[in-house]
Amino acid sequence: MIRSVCLLWLLLQLAVTAEAATLKLSAPLEQGTAVFLNASASLGTPDEIKWSGTLNGIPFPLTSDGEALIALDMEAPPGKVTIEVTATGPHGVKEVATRVVTVGKRTYQEEHVTLPEGQVTLSNKEDEERVQRETEAIKATFKIREGKVGFIEGFRLPVTGRFSGVFGSRRILNGKPRRPHNGVDIATPKGTVVPAPASGMVVLVGNDYLLTGNTLVLNHGHGVMTLYAHLDSINVAMGQWVPKGQTIGTVGTTGRSTGPHLHWGTMVRGQRVDPMRLPGLEKSETSPQ
Ligand SMILES: [Zn+2]
What are the Cα distances from residue 247, in Å, to 111, 158, 193, 250, 273? Predict the structure, then answer.
């Protein structure tokens, strides 16, 4: 009797493992783009399943419901990208879903900007050291991986206005090439209220940074960070949990800026992502591309 029960159990396990897990993407995965991944498996109830995933062999986190935000950097090499998700159920039984996508090369604009030399270069060692310190403080937030997940509902536009700077543009400043623009610039009057595009925790309040002015970074969990620069005022404090839609600050022209605008940047586990290509914003009418 015991033997037949065991055999039945084994057969059931085989039947379960034969059915593969599935994964869905909310949009095509491209350079500088973040998409929702939704995985499902049939080997147990949601709280019995443990999820793990890799993108080209690099692990990414999933929620207990099998959801993740995956992204490719603006300069990710074109070619084949392999996404693999593993569900581990009761008794260690696994189901795997694999997807191979071919990533093309995105064309970015080239922007020629002429500014007085004093606004472009740093005049002394003190300023150079200050910029280095402030840049490191910002970069440190891009390394954070812990924190409550706030991106699941998707993103909304923080402010509307004219796009005075697009994502990925190659900036030639006074004839010299600079780093590509890793965000979008939305020109809108000083004092315009900036609501949080998604729920998140305040992980950086940078007061009057030399280049980026009043600077704020929100942590949306799983290494998803959004950055706001040149703010006139910051209305939230370090460590504060900000629900989607709550005011985080107001638009300004602090730091090195030629007029009131919001610089909005997005990082997904260190990958530079076009904020206009975050889930929820793909169909935004004000998208510059
Ligand atoms: Zn900008």
Answer: 32, 9, 6, 8, 23
Place of tokens 């080209």: 56
Q: Tell me the CA distances in angstroms from 105 to 39, 78, 80, 102, one per residue in order.
A: 27, 6, 12, 10
Q: Is 229 or 179 the better-scoring residue by pLDDT?
A: 229
In the chain, domain spans = 2-103, 110-277
Distance 24 CA to ligand 1 centre (A): 32
Q: How far is the centre of ligand 1, averaged over its atoms, from the C-alpha of 184 (Å)?
A: 5
**What was the pLDDT predicted at 289?**
39
**Span 110-277 CATH architecture:** Distorted Sandwich (2.70)
- What is the Å distance from ligand 1's center to 82 Cα? 32
Q: Is the pLDDT of residue 18 over 80?
A: no
| Mean pLDDT score of the chain | 91
What CATH homologous superfamily does 2-103 map to? Immunoglobulins (2.60.40.10)
Instruction: Compute CA distances 86 → 67, 80, 100, 103, 273, whole Å.
Output: 12, 20, 15, 23, 25
Q: What's the 75 CA to ligand 1 centre distance in angstroms?
A: 18
Q: What is the pLDDT of residue 31?
A: 97
Confidence (pLDDT) at 288: 45
What burial class does residue 59 get, using C-beta atoms within 10 Å of its C-beta: 0-12 exposed, 13-18 middle, 19+ buried? exposed
